[in-house]
Amino acid sequence: SGKYRFVLFFTVFAAAYGIFLSKLRQKAISINFTDKGINVNGKEIRFSDIENYHTCLPLRKYFMLRLKTVHKKEVFYISVENREEIERIMKDKNLMFNKTKNDIWLQHSHTVLVVIISYLFIFLSLIIYNKIF
Fold first, then answer.
1. Separation of alpha carbons 98 and 103, rounded Å
2. Could you tell me if 67 and 50 are in contact, meaning their C-beta atoms sit under 8 angstroms apart?
3. H-state helical runs in 28-102
4. Residues 93, 57, 38, 69, CA torsion sign
5. What is the predicted pLDDT for the residue at 1?
6. Which residues pair with 96 in a beta bridge?
7. Cβ distance 33 to 27 under 8 Å?
8. What is the mean pLDDT of residues 14-24?
9. 44-58, 59-73, 99-113 — which is least confidently predicted?
10. pLDDT of residue 120 exceeding 60
C-alpha cells in the first residue's frame, strides 16, 4: 500500500503540472513586429511607447516578455523559439532592458512549490497513519 501511495502522489502532481502547462499554452500569444511597433494578437504597441522590457524563462516551453509602456505594464507568454529574435529586435530598437530581482524565484518557484507540497503530503500521511504522533 505504501508503493501505491507514492505512485498516486506523483501521478496527481504530474497531472496538476500538465493542467498548468495547458492553461499557459492557452495564454500564449502570437507576436509580430512591424516598423513602428509590436502587434500582439491584433493589438499594436508602438516602440515609442515602450519604456523598458524584460524577458524571463520561468518554464522551459514558454518565456515571459514584460513590457512597461507609458500607459501600463503588460506581460506576455511567448514560445521559447521566438526569444532570441525578440531580444535582438528590442536591442536593435535601443529599448532599455530592465532586469528584476524576482527572476530567480520565477524560474524555480514551481520546483520549490512541488518540494514543499511533497514534504507536507508526506508529513500528513505519516500523521494519518500514526507513524509520528
1. 11
2. yes
3. 83-92
4. negative
5. 55
6. 52
7. no
8. 78
9. 99-113
10. yes
Backbone dihedral angles phi then psi of residue 34, each to the nearest 5 degrees: -115, 180
Which cell goes with 32? 509580430
In the chain, what is the greatest distance between 2 CA atoms, to the nearest angstrom? 67
- Residue 67 and residue 45 in contact, taking contact as beta carbons nearer than 8 Å: yes
Which three cell numbers, joined as nine digits, stand for 18? 500538465
Rg (CA), the chain: 20
Short-list 57, 82, 77, CA closest to 67: 77
Q: How many residues does the chain have?
A: 133
pLDDT tens profile 69-86: 888 888 888 878 878 888
Q: How far apart are CA 75 and CA 62, in angstroms?
A: 12
Cα separations in angstroms, 16 against 20, 23, 87, 119: 6, 11, 31, 17
